DNA sequence: GGTTCCATACTACCATACAAGTATGGGAGT
DNA sequence: ACTCCCATACTTGTATGGTAGTATGGAACC
């Protein structure tokens, strides 16, 4: 667990890719930041080849924009793509949580409960970073329990823009308690197999994250397209 | 210079990527085919670098499997991923066709109608390849008309396995007339804004494509995981 | 002052050489 | 005949030099 922080996984290319992705999604590398193969290769102490490989992968996910012979930049947040990602997640999460109400492995249900406890602790510690990770983890467990983990991975690819706005909003207005409460209610609904109830909460949960996008565009105009 | 590049989308890397992807999805390169950077670079008359770049992108989409220091091969079709892709498409296409029944640009509606005409002609010509393309195009127009083209692109990434089974099934049982009829009925439902009707047809349309996956696994066992 | 042109310093793209891991086939030893 | 070992020919991973396209700043000119 600690080792992956130092040397994430396998090849140098994968390492650079994972580190850059984490830095971009966490806004440590703000939208619009210009990168370059050479500069990045120096920073990570590898050659340009694995850096270039990571750029290709990041570009495919829309996290960076490569302009041939001109440069590479962290992509700006595109409001339309944010809305699309939210739409996509709403549809799929609704369907998944409904599946979960029909059948959900006992072990995964326990994992959800454990995750909820961790969320409560993270909120008490005011640990936003951990809280965000646990939020992601909660939904991942949902998909995994329904044997739809591949779907979750695909969602992740489009979530680049969506997640960054979520982080921005949580900077301006930490509303972890509400998110926690929604997670808890979803857990109960699944446990009691109340599909309609679960789907309704999930819908609110998803729409919550998008409500005031205009506010964010005004507060952080340089981050948006 | 290089007239053989019929679709020279910019860089050599992109060219190789597009060509390989097309060959893989169309089963021209069957699942399990082993590739190699060197061999491919010779075939496309480029160096290993752009080939490697294309491999990275294809691997990210799950179209090829790269085993470090061992080789690269076209990925086998994974039944679970096929089912997941179908699930994903069903949820998203249902939601989109419902949106379309609420509001759909006149111009896009005309595009659908034109597409239907082309489908009929392709069926008469027994042009399976064109028919498949028109099928894809039909659904793409749907997403595009609802301003969800980004969603369609993400779907495409997971569709690698799903599409290959669809092609396999169409090899064994060409049922273009039924697909055309479903497309036509969806078009009518959208035009008359009958959301429930449209959603129902779309659901049947999606489930049709998956019905007899066991038959395919028996007929083409070497293509499946 | 304002415009044009060009040297320069970038950039990503590509080709190539080398490094390191892996499968394989043949020969030595038993 | 069978096992083990190792040379060898693969594979992908990495480093690096060169190429072509692009932005930029300053000089020359109007």
Summarize it.
Chains A, B: It holds the Pfam family GntR. The first copy, chain A, is mainly alpha-helical and 225 residues long.
Q: What is the total domain count of chain A?
A: 2
CATH superfamily of the largest domain in chain A: GntR ligand-binding domain-like
In what range is the share of β-strand residues of chain A? under 5%
CATH class of the largest domain in chain A equals Mainly Alpha
Whole-number mean pLDDT of chain A = 91
Summed up, the helix count of chain A is 11
- Give the chain pair forming the largest contact, with residue counts: A-B, 27 and 27 residues
The CATH architecture designation of the largest domain in chain A is Up-down Bundle
Contiguous low-pLDDT stretches of chain A (5 residues minimum) are: 1-8
Radius of gyration of chain A using CA atoms only? 19 Å
Number of strands of chain A: 3
Write the layout of secondary structure elements.
The structure is a homodimer of 225-residue chains.
Chain A: H1 3-6, H2 12-25, E1 34-35, H3 37-44, H4 48-60, E2 64-67, E3 71-74, H5 79-102, H6 106-124, H7 128-145, H8 149-172, H9 176-191, H10 195-208, H11 213-219
Antiparallel strand pairs in A: 1-3, 2-3
Helix pairs in contact in A: 2-4, 3-4, 5-7, 5-8, 5-9, 5-10, 6-7, 6-9, 7-8, 9-10
Chain A binds a DNA duplex (30 and 30 nucleotides) through helix 4.
Keywords (chains A, B): DNA-binding, Transcription, Transcription regulation
InterPro entries (chains A, B): GntR_C, TF_FadR/GntR_C, Tscrpt_reg_HTH_GntR, WH-like_DNA-bd_sf, WH_DNA-bd_sf
Domain HTH gntR-type (chains A, B): 10-77
